[in-house]
Every structure is written in C-alpha cells, then in structure tokens.
Amino acid sequence: MTIIVTGGAGFIGSNFVFHMLNKYPDYRIICLDALTYAGNMSTLKSVMDNPNFRFVKASITDREAVDKLFEEEKPDIVVNFAAESHVDRSIENPSVFLETNILGTQVMMDACRKHGIKRYHQVSTDEVYGDLPLDRPDLFFTEETPIHTSSPYSASKASADLLVMAYHRTFGLPVTISRCSNNYGPYHFPEKLIPLMIANALNDKPLPVYGKGENVRDWLYVEDHCKAIDLIIHNGRVGEVYNIGGHNEMANIDIVKIICKELGKPESLITYVADRKGHDMRYAIDPTKIHNELGWLPETKFADGIKKTIQWYLDNKDWWEEIISGEYRNYYEKMYGDRH
Ligand code: NAD
Ligand code: DAU
Fold it and tell me: Cα separations (Å) of 15 from 57, 77, 230, 320?
C-alpha cells in the first residue's frame, strides 16, 4: 500500500506519518509538503532514513509536481492534511487560504481522477459547522448539521468539503471526509492556543487570552485523531463524512489556568486582550457515527494528554525555540504587539 500524506511536515500530518510507519511496516508513506512557515523538516528527522518513507517538497497547488509524483509513486490512498490552518492568519490574509485549501484540494483530486485511486481522504474540521451557543449544552455538531462558517479559514475548508463531495457525485471519486475538533499534542505549532501558552509561560511572558476566555473548544489528543483517520481510510464508507471529537469541552481560560498550574507559573501572567474578529463561541462534536460504524473512541483523557504534551514541550525546547526565534517573532509582534 502506498499512501501520499500531504502536509506531513505539520502538526497532525507528522503525527499521522509516525503512526502509519509504526503500525504498518509494509506500507510506503510519501510526505508531500511545501514547507510553509508551519512545516518543519526537523519534525520528520526521525523518519527520514526509514526506507518506507519519502519526503517531497512541493505545493499541492503545483499541478505539474503533483502529477509527476503520482506517476512515480502510483499511490493507493491520498490523505490531504495540507492547508493553511490558523484562523487568525486567515483574518489577516485570506488569499493564501483560498489558494491552498480550495485550489490545492482540487489539484490533488484531479490527480486522483487521472491516475486512479482507492481512496481520497480530506482532513476537514468541525469549524465548517460554525459555532454553538454557550447556553445550549445539549447541542452538538452531527454530520447532518448545516455548514455555516465564520472565518475565511473555515469558509475555505467548507468550500473544499463541498468540492470533495462534488467530485464524488460527479466523477465517482472514492472520497471520505473527516471533521475533527481541536487537536493538541507534540509538534503543535506555537501560534496555536496550547503550545503558545506553554512557550510563553516557560518564558514568563504574558498569556494573551482573547475576550473573556469563555470560548469553548472540544480538545482531542492528536494520536486519537490519527487513529480515527487510519480507521476511516481502511474501513470508512466511500462518500461519507465522519465527525471526530473527544467529548472534552473546555473554556480557554480553564486550559490556560491548567497550564500555569502544571508549570508552576502564576496566573498573574494571564492578560485579557482584544477578542478575535468573528470568534466562534463553542465547538462540540457528536462522534456517535464513527463510534457505531468503526468502533472509534478517544483513548487519551485530557488530564493525561495535557501532562504528556507539556512534558514534550519541556523535553523538546530546541524544536519550538528555533521556531519562535525565527520569522515567527515578526508574526507575534504584529498580532500581539498592540493588542489590548
Ligand atoms: P499545520 O499548520 O500544523 O500544518 C500544515 C502543513 O501543511 C505544514 O507542514 C505546511 O507546510 C503544509 N502546507 C501548507 N500549505 C501547503 C501547500 N500549498 N502544499 C503542500 N503543503 C502545504 O496544520 P495542522 O494543525 O497539522 O492541520 C492539518 C490539517 O488538519 C488541516 O487541513 C486542518 O484544517 C485540519 N485540522 C486541524 C485541526 C487542529 O486542531 N489543528 C483540527 C481539525 C482539522
Ligand atoms: O476546531 C478545529 C480547529 O481548531 C482547526 O480546524 C484549526 O486548524 C485549529 O487552528 C483550531 O482552531 P481554533 O481557532 O479553535 O484554535 P486556536 O488554537 O487558534 O484557538 C483556540 C481558542 O483559543 C480560540 O477560542 C481562540 C483562543 N486563543 C487563541 C490564541 C492563539 C486565545 O485566547 N489566545 C491566543 O493567543
């Protein structure tokens, strides 16, 4: 089995590459990644010498490069993680989100059509459903929840999902889509809430909480997401959407307080800053379908996962210190410099 994993030098994609190489020693895993600011070769260093692994630097929007790779590798499965993934960046500059997330998806699916494929899997997000109110804890996103997006990021992911379904219906492409809640774990880029708070707390820097910190996210340990995708590409039904989530809703402020406590840092580091524009209030996934059809359940409890994650950031300072000392500094200054 040969699998092309796009975006495999990023957070979830790299964890998926490790999971697959570990679990299936006879599979060939090809990582196709453009190495944007979010992709990191040092993340993949432990697998670069693995004879079952190949890294190819190219953009999913580059039709010629994608075509050449398909000709060389004749993949059985494509798992498309590659995307611009940060909501705040999509508010600053939407264009690249449309190019990568929508047009890149089209290029990958066109290659699948041309060369033939057993499965094209689109890694999507719960953000395509918009948000839920805080005062209705009885409501959850199911696969039937209408798409209702808030940010340029979520709109680009929803557009891609619609295109994936259109390629299935019109061209018979064997597709699946997964829509997952917020992931956390090793190799999470330090612009996102959990790693940003860990890095800032370790450096005794302010912890910038948007608005009142009451927005709720449904956190899932990244390995559980990877296991769910593994199940879907092998046993999921073609043409179906699967929601993935941890039944682990938490307010942002509570996450930040846990991180302070675990690191022995004072809560006085917490600074409330201007809210995100169009900030989604609450995400909550109903994962009944993937549980009933594929037997998936989250395995890592948040209390354990967050400890493991913090320990990983303590043990791998080189990885994130290199990132935050580079171009990321300009980003941080621009986004947080005068955010009161
Ligand atoms: P990430 O930003 O950490 O990584 C994205 C990767 O894609 C990087 O390696 C980057 O170099 C690569 N990439 C970007 N543009 C590319 C292009 N044009 N061609 C090839 N490679 C390109 O993202 P992540 O958090 O790992 O998210 C991966 C996928 O999962 C995304 O599709 C995202 O929408 C989805 N998702 C993320 C979460 C989450 O909590 N992080 C939850 C649900 C779904
Ligand atoms: O739900 C899945 C989505 O989760 C994925 O599709 C996205 O790719 C991923 O980035 C994530 O989106 P969020 O916007 O939920 O994640 P982020 O880490 O950016 O923010 C989480 C919450 O924390 C959100 O309510 C905003 C808040 N926040 C974030 C940052 C970066 C802060 O309060 N302060 C911050 O500095």
Answer: 18, 17, 12, 16
Q: Is the CB of 126 under 6 A from ligand 2?
A: yes
Element at 190 (helix H, strand E): none
Domains recognised in the chain with CATH numbers: 2-336 (3.40.50.720)
Burial grade of 174 (CB within 10 A; 0-12, 13-18, 19 or more): middle
Torsion angle, alpha carbons of 211, 216, 218, 219, to 10: 40
For 71-126, how does the pLDDT look when each residue is reduced to its tens digit (9 = 90+)?
Answer: 999 999 999 999 999 999 999 999 999 999 999 999 999 999 999 999 999 999 99
265 C-alpha to center of ligand 2: Å?
Answer: 22
Nearest Cα neighbor of 123 from 279, 232, 215 is: 232
Atom of ligand 2 nearest to the CA of 256: 33
Ligand 2 binding pocket includes 158 (Cβ within 6 Å): no
Alpha carbons 104 and 180: distance in angstroms, whole number: 20
How far does CA 178 lie from the centroid of its chain?
A: 11
pLDDT tens by residue, 122-169: 999 999 999 999 999 999 999 999 999 999 999 999 999 999 999 999
> What are the pLDDT digits (tens) for 173-223?
999 999 999 999 999 999 999 999 999 999 999 999 999 999 999 999 999
Who contacts 139 (Cβ-Cβ below 8 Å, separation ≥6)?
132, 133, 284
In angstroms, the first-to-last Cα distance of the chain is: 52
> Strands 77-80 and 119-125: what pairing?
parallel
Q: 175 C-alpha vs ligand 2 centroid, how far in Å?
A: 27
Find how far residue 139's CA is from the centre of its chain: 23
Ligand 1 pocket check for 227: Cβ under 6 Å? no
64 is written with which tokens?
A: 């010629």
**Could you list the active site residues?**
126-127, 153
